[in-house]
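Q: May I have one protein plus its fold?
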Amino acid sequence: MLNLYNSMTRTLEAFEPRDESGRVKIFTCGPSIYRRPHIGNYRTFLYEDLLVRYLEYLGYKVKRVINFTDVEDKTIIEADNQGRSMEEVTTDVADHFFHEAELLCMKLPAKIPRSSTSVLKASEIIAKLMKSGHAYAHNGDIFFDPLKYKDFGKLYRLDMSRWPDKKVRFRRDTYVGNRWNRGDFILWHGYRDGDSAFWDTPVGKGRPSWNIQDPAMIVQHLGLTVDINCGGIDNIYRHHDYNIAIMESLSGEDYAKYYLHGEHLVVDGKPMSKSRGNMLYPDDILGRGYAPHHLRFFLIYQPYRARLNYTHDRFRVQAERVDALRHTVNELLEGGPGSRKIARSAVDGDERRDTEVGQAVARLPVVFEENMNANLGVGAAFDGLAGILGRLLRFRTQGRLNEADRRATTDALLGIDTVLKVIFTD
């Protein structure tokens, strides 16, 4: 059974979907497309990709929403700085994301919603929150009062005893750093003269804040509840607790059963930042002669809940490791599933099987699933597979691997690689 670390309970829990039919709904925070994602962002997107792929491998039917945030303070500022429209800026970044996601074998939904397409839904949610007393208007803006929601801060386990007695309001979409804004947070930016982004809605003229945009897209495309909510570790500060407060104030029930959060990627031991000059993007690495599967493997190998330190040497070692396994598979299968030729003899079905070889082949999916079931343990799964494949290659050199064993090995690896996407992919 799949076990996932639930950030809400801070324990490892057996995964059980809400729907007994095996349908699973997942919301994963997508990129804010005012600027291109770096490899740390892709690390988050890739653990989410693994989760979706592995659930499907296990037989679940997954409906995933990954969103584009295209209307927020940062987008407006970036567009103004470039002297371009928000649509021009965000379209370029989105196209870049699609290209890199394809290179990294990310399995994306057929349609990715944008916050700009959920403005009406955001206004509907705000109207309901105002009617229930959770939200209120002030000087043209609309704010959410966390004290109206009894479980506010439960994901982070915020100490509410430190909440200020005096009313405090936070009007910006986002704030720098992992800090808590103890006060009311904004849902709707009322129109001001000169604003370049605004809509006319039932709650007034203006635009939805970042805090309401995810709930709007979730409600519009998944409903009021999901099975799993994913994101990066930084979302535990403010953002996901804001989403929970909005969703559960709206529905009166638990929004998600499981919360997953991936740790940061750092470069040479330091957080990435423009001021340090250590921002890394996929093409920075691929431009050094590496293949996309090298980058995917590096980003998924280490447990997603552990901080990942990128160094050139560590990346090179991991690239060599995955290529060594691919070479083993190539020798074992004589070119892999796309090029190997299996000569089926008349006695093919009656070939005598080597028990030790058969047991090793049968262990491939078992080892993979045992480790993946332990909170997506990709590294341990990969290492276990590498050990078994090394044994099978030795059996082959001893003439003990027949065509039936080779076909069974191929079938097992093809299934496994629907999740990992590093064994047979270019």
User: Anything to note?
Assistant: The CA atoms of residues 360 and 382 lie 15 Å apart. The longest strand covers residues 184-190. Residues 312-333 form the longest helix (22 residues). The radius of gyration is 25 Å.
